[in-house]
Design brief:
Helix content is 9%, strand content 50%. It contains two helices and eight strands, in the order αββαββββββ. Strand 7 and strand 8 form a beta hairpin.
């Protein structure tokens, strides 16, 4: 018997980010900037119906924001920098968690999103 709770509790969706800096190159640094990006679903996420979309990512003042994720309850969150690598974990009560992991290379940004989706399940005893 399959453990359906384990199977359905977390859906991991990998998305690839590719973008260019929206602000002037001289104003961008790994620690701050605004990037217009195209988010492209990986093969598994595309097979589940995820579509490509445009987003604006903002790293500023120790906070990270994704404008495309804001309507789904993801606000701004802290991010960590390690050289030109940044990471941020964000949570929405309605949509689950997003783990962002990106790399700033001059005026380009690439990275991945790992998404866990919250599912609501019901159960009852069987006689």
């Amino acid at each position: 018997m399959r453990n359906w709770f384990a199977v359905s509790a977390v859906l991991l969706m990998a998305l690839v980010l590719v973008g260019t800096v929206a602000s002037a190159k001289s104003n961008a640094s790994p620690e701050k900037g605004t990037w217009k990006v195209r988010v492209m679903p990986g093969a598994e996420a595309a097979a589940k119906g995820e579509k490509e979309f445009e987003d604006t990512l903002i790293l500023k003042g120790g906070k990270f924001r994704s404008t495309a994720c804001e309507p789904y309850g993801f606000g701004s969150g802290a991010y960590k920098m390690d050289g030109n690598i940044w990471m941020s974990d964000m949570e929405s009560k309605k949509e689950g968690k997003n783990h962002w992991h990106g790399q700033v290379d001059g005026d380009h940004l690439t990275g991945r999103i790992a998404r866990s989706v919250v599912f609501q399940v019901t159960f009852k005893t069987v006689h």
